[in-house]
Design goal:
The protein is an alpha/beta fold. The protein has a domain of about 230 residues: NAD(P)-binding Rossmann-like Domain (Rossmann fold, 3-Layer(aba) Sandwich), CATH 3.40.50. The strands form 5 sheets. Strands 3-2-1-4-5-7-12 form a 7-stranded parallel β-sheet, sandwiched between helices. The protein has a two-stranded antiparallel ribbon with strand order 6-15. Helix 8 packs across helix 10.
Length: about 325
């Protein structure tokens, strides 16, 4: 199958998602729709709504600094609102919706802009939680709130105590704690969605590794193991998580089901590109790893395998597909983004 056709096929909503969307009451609002995952999430939700034939609005909120994105989403049938969520009068003017997906936050460039990072990641959640206290909320978070785990382990479960490294991860734990507080205070059904790492043909850990192999740049092996999941699958789980929001809030790890070797992934890309990867440094005994078995118990087994992702991304690069210039910095072990 031609690469773009295969990619589009993997972006279509599954029967499981259609079933869950059909029984979901109320409209869906995505706060922070302009980020890496937001546009695809909004399109997936819209596709699922139309496929089920139910009447439900999908609303996207962002500053829309990327040219053309707002128009693109509008043409897809998604209602958009331009808003800087840190400006409270703009936040308060937003429509209410029964279902909230909270994607707003900042990560890269946080070193040197720590005050903004904390305002965005830890202060804003309280304002949003108050505004949408009568909704159900899925809060996007990160596995960065966990400590580095032994590579022989199966990764951090949701019961693992948080030990965030660096101010970005600390502020993300702040986001979680604030939403947890208001979930209990206002009886707001909430789910903390701890994700690492989502992959698309346009961005992600796998693309970072693939580009390094293709461009013959050294790959740092100190963070030698990762969990990777297809972005479309992660987006499906986010939408289906709206049925699992609780008060007090629930925590759910979203990640690939296997611990994957960075070196092995690079070598597989090397075979596809007919190039030998360049490695530097040694694999360490720990890595940022999450155990997502709870989510697979809720949503069923993985739909897109690591091998499928590798082959698709390699094909995308070979055919000159458009990619985002948004490296993940997954190799970072000191928490400095």
């Amino acid at each position: 199958m031609e690469i773009n056709s295969l990619y589009q096929k993997l972006l279509k909503p599954s029967d499981d998602l259609l079933f869950d969307i059909a029984r979901l009451d109320g409209d869906i609002i995505i706060l922070g729709v302009g980020g890496k995952m937001g546009p695809a999430l909004a399109r997936l939700a819209r596709q699922a709504v139309e496929a089920t034939g139910i009447k439900k609005e999908v609303i996207g909120v962002a500053r829309f600094s990327e040219p053309g994105l707002q128009q693109e989403l509008e043409q897809y049938g998604i209602k958009t609102h331009v808003a800087d969520l840190l400006q409270d009068h703009e936040l308060q003017q937003l429509p209410l919706a029964q279902n909230v997906l909270y994607l707003a936050g900042t990560k890269f460039g946080t070193t040197g802009k720590e005050a903004f990072t904390w305002a965005m990641n830890s202060y804003l959640p309280g304002r949003v939680a108050e505004k949408f206290k009568d909704s159900r909320i899925v809060v996007f978070s990160t596995g960065n709130v966990y400590p580095l785990m032994p590579i022989q382990s199966s990764g951090s479960t949701e019961k693992q105590a948080a030990e965030p490294i660096g101010e970005y991860a600390q502020s993300c734990l702040g986001r979680e704690r604030v939403f947890q507080y208001f979930s209990s205070q206002n009886n707001t059904p909430t789910l903390i969605y701890r994700l690492n790492y989502a992959n698309d043909v346009t961005y992600g850990v796998l693309l970072d590794i693939a580009k390094a192999v293709k461009e013959q740049r050294p790959i740092d092996l100190r963070m030698g193991y990762v969990n990777v999941i297809w972005q479309g699958e992660a987006n499906e789980m986010a939408l289906r998580s709206l049925h699992h929001c609780t008060s007090p809030s629930m925590i759910l790890n979203i990640a690939g089901p296997e611990t994957s070797s960075v070196k092995s992934i690079a070598e597989q890309f090397g075979l596809l590109f007919k190039m030998k990867p360049i490695f530097v440094n040694e694999e360490q005994s720990t890595a940022l790893l999450s155990n997502a078995s709870k989510s697979y118990g809720l949503f069923g087994p993985q739909k897109v395998s690591l091998q499928q992702m590798i082959e698709l991304i390699a094909g995308w690069i070979i055919t000159g597909g458009k990619i985002l210039n948004k490296p993940t910095h997954f190799q970072e072990r000191e928490g400095k983004f």
